[in-house]
């Protein structure tokens, strides 16, 4: 390839990047369209793009068979439903600056069968997050902003949640709401009884010599039912 | 259903072959540790058949995602200043 051809190719690529970035930025809340920019594509790397202005990230990375890692700033996001729905090779998701403005998160990671790690979720203002981790059988690490899980959360498809994730989830439960349930896989639920720690300023800190079990913390300190 | 206490936590365990179901939170479980103010009467026993029927209903409720239409894309291109 001649230098000129190469330069032209790079220009074309640059334009493509600009167009895609413009499409991301156009995903405004309340628009009559939703572009689902990378949905159903073979994209492998989205690190070159800036998602911080996008308000609608619905299905942004849904059904992307080749993507393994996503790290995105979602500081303007309001809609995150099916964000990574059915992306079978996705392993790690790093969500930065998820704010209280996000109102939809149904099926965010549903059917991501190889998903191992998700951080950091803020569920505080979500009207619904049904199926957020449905069929995520390999999920190990999950992180929540403390006190932001306001309604019943189901992580029962994930038997391999680490102790740290269970503690993190427990600390994520909001302690002012009533009648809510944390649904875990039987293995994880059983493990909660064996995790010991101390409670400082309403936060559970794992400690082998602690006297409070995570189950007690969830049901008594947080007032949530563990099922 | 057995109601007992473990470390001062109220615990519900269904009879053999049955499950606990709470319609308010759409949850089925094999063992429930009740929150300190939780109402135990919200949990009822169901059979394996009922469990499977409920789970099938919930699966059916998973709606199909809205797809972008051609008009959506034309609108988007127009906003980008792309003209045919």
Key features of this structure:
heterodimer; A: about 230 residues; alpha/beta; four-stranded parallel β-sheet; three-stranded parallel β-sheet; 4 helices; about 15% strand; elongated; B: about 80 residues; alpha+beta; three-stranded antiparallel β-sheet; 6 strands
Account of the 3D structure:
- The complex is a heterodimer of chains A (227) and B (84).
- Chain A is of the alpha/beta class.
- In chain A, strand 5, helix 2 and strand 6 form a beta-alpha-beta unit.
- Chain B has 84 residues and is α+β, with helices and mostly antiparallel strands.
- Chain B is 27% helix and 30% strand.
- In chain B, the strands form 2 sheets. In chain B, strands 1-2-5 form a 3-stranded antiparallel sheet, with no helix packed on it. In chain B, strands 4-3-6 form a 3-stranded antiparallel sheet.
- Chain B is elongated.
- The mean pLDDT of chain B is 84.
- At the A-B interface, helix 1, helix 3, helix 4 and strand 10 of A face strand 5 and helix 2 of B.
Strands side by side in the biggest sheet of chain B: 1-2-5
Strand percentage of chain B lies at 25-35%
Low-confidence stretches of chain B: none
Compute the number of strand runs of chain A: 10
Helix content of chain A: 10-25%
Order of helices and strands of chain B: EEEEEEHH
Number of helices of chain B: 2
What is the end-to-end distance of chain A?
A: 62 Å
Query: Any low-confidence stretches of chain A, pLDDT <50, length ≥5?
Result: none
